[in-house]
From TrEMBL:
One matching Pfam family: SurE
Keywords in alphabetical order: Hydrolase, Metal-binding
Stated name of the protein: Survival protein SurE-like phosphatase/nucleotidase domain-containing protein
Biased composition (Polar residues): 29-45
One Gene Ontology term of the molecular function aspect: metal ion binding
Organism this protein belongs to: Gossypium stocksii
Keyword Hydrolase attributed: yes
Domain Survival protein SurE-like phosphatase/nucleotidase intervals: 58-248
Length: 382
């Protein structure tokens, strides 16, 4: 299917190059072999010997090691046969973990079988995964060529960036001096399917390949990460579009619930045990915990389901109220066509440069626009 770009502020040469690359990819789809990840016993450190003949990429995400977006991305990169892959991703979904690190607690790491990639699952956050992988404590290599976070379902546009564990993982790589990309897919509930994620992975290959080539040549923008948002219909996309970060965020909805509506709490202990968490953690500050229990034993707990403002109780009564947060679907609104979420809604692949400082944003946008134009033009000619 041919693509076209309308009302796009990018240079005409960039538009032409992107269209040709996307058209070529759609006419020659990549055939992936199906693979699933499953836990394996810890292995010896033969993982420390990557194939030095190929660029080494570190793949992570925020949704967990078993998420289809990550698996399809790994399949696409391995089928392309240009790269050596190491995967270090959370053991469970950490989509809104933000830029949080796990301190004063043990982080467990388990090996995972994932085709020809060297893969580990981590009990911590996405930032833990990147920080650990780049530290040299898990892998012997010092730095990969590129860190990729994704493909993650849901938007990381606008102010969602501050909540997003996916963007945080890419930002941590940038803090550590490693170029990074964050790949997110505009997942539509009851509409999108896993095949869309496979198409999204294929769509991103030209940009990833171009990034690796120019990183090795010293021509990739060094002061920013690229936040790439893929529209809900990848095959019908209108092209890549350089965008600016908007002020939009997902509406938040807090709802009062009863205490017996929290099934996740019952699964917490078994999940942690399966990760091999050290029993020594349970003894941390045991004396203080015992003192607290003795103090609370003299209080009367009043458990209620909150539906409004609670009245003030007597000093010996403790009120327990339970709430649950939901992220609502984004609402369509009028906005500048060059803002990230609006470009995605219009069917473009939005490429938003994100810096650690906002002072040079205009300069960064110019550098990224020039790089995309040259890099993907070269990819199309090859």
């Amino acid at each position: 299917m041919a693509t076209s770009v309308k009302n796009n502020s990018l240079p005409p040469s960039l538009i032409s190059n992107l269209n040709q690359v996307l058209l070529s990819r759609q006419q020659h789809p990549i055939d992936h072999q199906s693979t699933n990840s499953s836990s394996l016993p810890p292995q010896t450190r033969n993982v420390d010997e990557p194939d030095c003949s190929k660029p080494l990429l570190l793949i992570t995400n925020c949704e967990g090691i078993d998420s289809p977006g990550l698996i399809f991305l790994v399949q696409a990169l391995l089928s392309d046969a240009r790269f050596t892959l190491h995967v270090c991703a959370p053991q469970s979904d950490k989509s809104v973990a933000g830029h949080s690190l796990t301190v004063r607690e043990t982080v467990a790491v388990c090996s995972v079988e994932m085709s020809d990639a060297t893969a580990f699952e981590v009990s911590g956050t996405p930032v833990d995964c990147v920080s650990l992988a780049l530290s040299g404590a898990l892998f012997s290599w010092s730095k990969p060529v590129l860190v990729i976070s994704g493909i993650n379902r849901g938007s990381s546009c606008g102010r969602n960036m501050f909540y997003s564990g996916a963007v945080a993982a890419a930002r941590e790589a940038l803090i550590c001096g490693v170029p990074s990309l964050c790949l997110s897919f505009d997942w539509k509930k009851d509409v999108s399917s896993e095949s869309d994620l496979k198409n999204a992975a294929d769509l991103c290959l030209p940009l990833i390949s171009a990034a690796v080539i120019d990183i090795e040549r010293g021509k990739f923008p060094e002061s920013c990460l690229l936040n790439i948002e893929i529209p809900s219909s990848p095959l019908a996309n209108k092209g890549f579009k350089l965008t600016r970060q908007s002020l939009w965020r997902s509406p938040l909805s807090w709802k009062a619930v009863s205490a017996n509506r929290h099934p996740a709490a019952g699964r917490y202990l078994s999940n942690q045990q399966s990760l091999g968490i050290k029993l020594a953690q349970l003894s941390r500050d045991a004396s203080a915990a015992g003192a607290a229990r003795r103090l609370n034993s003299h209080r009367k707990n009043v458990e209620i389901e909150s539906v409004g403002i609670a009245r003030k109780f007597n000093g010996q009564q403790t009120v327990k109220k339970c709430f649950r947060l939901e992220l609502l679907e984004k609402e369509t609104e009028k906005a500048d066509d060059n803002l990230d979420f609006k470009a995605v809604e219009d069917g473009y692949v939005a490429v938003t440069p994100l810096s650690l400082s906002s002072t040079d944003q205009s300069k960064i946008e110019t550098e990224v626009s020039s790089w995309i134009s040259a890099a993907l033009g070269r990819e199309q000619r090859n």
